[in-house]
Structures are given as structure tokens and as C-alpha cells.
Structure prediction request, 87 residues.
Amino acid sequence: MTSSSLRRDGYWRANLRLVGLCLLVWFVCSFGFGVLFVEQMNHWRVGGVKLGFWFAQQGSIVIFVLLIFFYAWRMNRIDREYDVQED
Prediction:
């Protein structure tokens, strides 16, 4: 394998790891907190609303938007690391 193909494979692995991490966080927050663990989460309140309900209605959306910003920030760092950033 050439050096460029090794770098390309490393870049792709870093990208897939990041996407997998973001999907895992999104799944846990949306399906886990909003559906699977809703009864346990409902013991706490946020602004007068049960936490499980809040995650099902608003929390998963907030987490999703934060994940978009995190992905963009982290992907820019990975691009610079592998010298494929946009000019």
C-alpha cells in the first residue's frame, strides 16, 4: 500500500468512528431517554415537565442540533489532521 492510500484509509476510519459516535449518542438520547428509560427519567423534572417527556419532545432535538455542531467542529479538525481541509 502506498502512503496516500494509508492516509486515505485512516481518514475514512476517523470519519466512520465520528459518525458512529454521533449516531450512538443520538440513539441513546432519542430512543433510550425518550422511549426505553422514560419511566426512570420521569422521576426528575425540567421546568415543571417530566424529564422523560422533555427528552421525547425537545431534548432529542436539542441533542441532535448540538451533534451537528460537534460533527462539523470535529470533522474540521480531522480534515486538518489529514491535510484535506477546504481552503
